[in-house]
Amino acid sequence: MTCTNVPKSRIRSLTVLTILGVLACGNEDPDGSVTINYQLGLSNMCASLDVQTIRVDIGDGSETKEAPCDPSQGIELEDVKAGNYDLRVTGIDSEGITVMDNLDTPTSDDSVEIVGGSSRDVDVSLSATPATVGVKWLNTFEGEPAECAFLITSKFEVTTYADDAPVLSHEFDCVKPPGFAIVPDENREVNGQQLDGVRVRLLDDGGDVLTQAVSEFEPPGPGRTVELTLNCDEEDGVVMCEISMNVSGGTDTTEPTSGPEPTGGPESTGGDSSG
Q: Rounded to whole angstroms, how far apart are CA atoms 58 and 77?
């Protein structure tokens, strides 16, 4: 048998490296797991709400899981790195549209802490997602495309309605957006189960109403998008508009409104309210 003498200095170095390695491993937080238990509004019934799938996203969505809707069965995510994360839980209907989520008040259930080496349960409450209203406009002067600088129209005021009452109003500058301009709704006021009308007023520099176009429709439902396209022509100081409406892939309708005195559609009273 051959014996080899290892210098004491090297033994000490190897021992230090081993200790450092153990300490480094000990400082790493182990993964944890979480089970998401969810409540669907007041009814808590998947079928009546047409919720087919529940999706859970933790953080930036790198940790995600989907499961058939069943409030009696929580959704478990395993091997998630310890830490604090944003939590989004969504209910998806038979058309693939997100109709419920946990982002409404209270907001106490829109984040989650993953504790290393342990498992925990988190309860979330889902409510209906708001509808979205988008508007775009095409301006002409005597039938020819025209920039806003050459028109008397200065702003487009968009007001949403529910049961003939104004809900949310926003003014857009005349400058044409690169697509549909979305009506801001930070407080989620546009209820898709109640939204039944949108009025667009064209205003001049002084805020006077030049004309208006109105669309009335059946409530589109949670998570749906109402898209309005206006074709407006100006001639001899008179503005005439036609509005076409599309609700979540539905059919288009056209309702012309013209002249300096707005007529038709929801009443003007309350239309100046802001959201």
A: 9
Is residue 171 within 8 Å of residue 214, measured between CB atoms? no
Q: Is the separation of the CB atoms in 172 and 158 below 8 Å?
A: yes
Partner residues linked to 80 by β-bridges: 32
Q: Residue 105 belongs to what domain range?
A: 32-128
């003007």: which residue's tokens?
Answer: 268
Q: Would you state the structure tokens that stand for residue 161, as one six-digit string?
A: 């309605």
Burial of 20 (0-12, 13-18, 19+ CB in 10 A): exposed
Number of domains within the chain: 2
Averaged pLDDT for residues 43-62: 94
DSSP state of 251: -
Do 252 and 141 have their domain in common?
Answer: yes
Calculate the dihedral angle through the C-alpha atoms of 50, 56, 57, 58, rounding to the nearest 10 degrees.
150
For residue 105, the model assigns a pLDDT of 80
In this structure, the answer to whether residues 155 and 250 fall within a common structural domain is yes
Domain assignment present for residue 241? The answer is yes
pLDDT tens digit string along 162-205?
998 999 999 999 987 778 999 999 999 999 999 999 999 999 99
What single string gives the DSSP state of each residue in 66-83? EEE--TTS-EEEEEEPSE
CATH of the domain at 240: 2.60.40
Q: What is the pTM of this model?
A: 0.76
Classified as helix, coil or strand, 105 is: coil
Which candidate, 138, 136, 241, 140, places its Cα nearest to that of 179?
136
Same domain, 218 and 113: no
